[in-house]
Amino acid sequence: MATAIAFDHVRKAYADGTVAVGDLSLEVREHELLALVGPSGCGKSTTLRMANRLVEPTSGRILLDGEDVTDVDAVALRRRIGYVIQNVGLFPHRTVEQNVGTVPRLLGWDRNRTRARTRELLELVGLAPDRYARRYPHELSGGERQRVGVARALATDPPVLLMDEPFGAVDPVGRRRLQTEFRRIKDELGTTVMLVTHDVDEAVRLADRVAVLSRGGHLEQLSDPVRLLAAPASPAVADLVGTGAAVRLLALGRVEPRDLQPAGGAGPVSANGRARSAVLRVGDPLDAAFAALAAEPTGRVPVHEGDRVVGELDAPGVLAALHRLVDGAQDAVPSRAAGQPEPSAGARG
Ligand SMILES: Nc1ncnc2c1ncn2[C@@H]1O[C@H](COP(=O)(O)OP(=O)(O)OP(=O)(O)O)[C@@H](O)[C@H]1O
Predict the structure, then answer these.
(1) Which candidate in 164, 174, 189, 324 could, as Cys together with 143 as Cys, close a disulfide (CB 3.0–4.6 Å)?
(2) What is the pLDDT of residues 157-173, one digit of tens each?
């Protein structure tokens, strides 16, 4: 797979001597969503901001599509790379439409083209243009502002999008919805995304691969979310994924027909005579399946596909699905940047 952004032995020491990033080598593949996670101050934002030259590296190279970013004019570079930050940074005295149209205007698009693109993007992020285009940022909720920020960053369909805690200001429910919608939009557009977050849940739910950094921008592990949760490569990663790792893994697995028992014809009434309330569908996440099983005294929950009941799920079925998920990730060739040591399997907890 082609590489979109390559960090090659990158170092950043700030003027006061703080080494934010010591020696980082990392490749972001074309079309993937790579999440950077790690404790506060470990160098995530610095790493991200070096990609669009808001921060200049002290040494090392950053290649965008094979081209050294320091050879590209910084302003031209930022027009090629979308950038979304936590508090969005919308222009307060410009309407939503004007905010989203900022970069197209700078690029000299005519008024009609800019307007058409702006409206299309507002639709895409779930803000009806007729309702929202003329509002000012102070007339929006935090989540709506965040959506405008995403629309603005995508206005010129940049191949690469850098996001720094983009959903941070949104409440947990709105945040989950925004994450799901963002993932859908990203898949539709094929954008390469580098996302900084301190939220491991957000990282494993959204990302194709997760890079865990520790102090000084040290790369502790680079792997797909399942492998990260099932086989933390170091104590620092284990610490970060914490005791909730198994539960987070459940959220990544899906109910599949092969894990089901034949439907026993138990009907709508369970063993103790109460009506069954739980119904699962093929493709439901395993955490929802587990919750449904826990609430069902018979230990079996019917699973639907379309209008049909295709079987019943029990606890061994959930475990089988979970084991397959983890084993599949272990077998996969570990994805890692050139020059990075393979995560040690021995650290598996
Ligand atoms: N302009 C600056 N001058 C000096 N030191 C800086 C500057 N910007 C960041 N740092 C330091 O560099 C280190 C890495 O900061 P950075 O913002 O990259 O971390 P982060 O992982 O994004 O943190 P957080 O999760 O808290 O946002 C920190 O020790 C920080 O204090």
Answers:
(1) 174
(2) 889 999 998 887 677 77
